[in-house]
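Take a look at this chain, tokens included, and explain the fold to me:
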Amino acid sequence: MQANGHAIRAIRERTGLSITDLAAAARIDRTNLSRIESGQRVGTDRQLVDIASALKVPLTAIINAPEPVA
């Protein structure tokens, strides 16, 4: 599985969570979450499940989301 970091960031911001809050809720290091959001790192399957759960969205919302058009 590969997440769309832009989708994670957009959902996080739309729900009003800071990156620190989401990292804590998903039990992921804040720096790792930042790297996942920026596309510098691919999260593990477990991390992606935890992120989706913390955001209260289906996993498909963060793995099948299209990349933004520049």
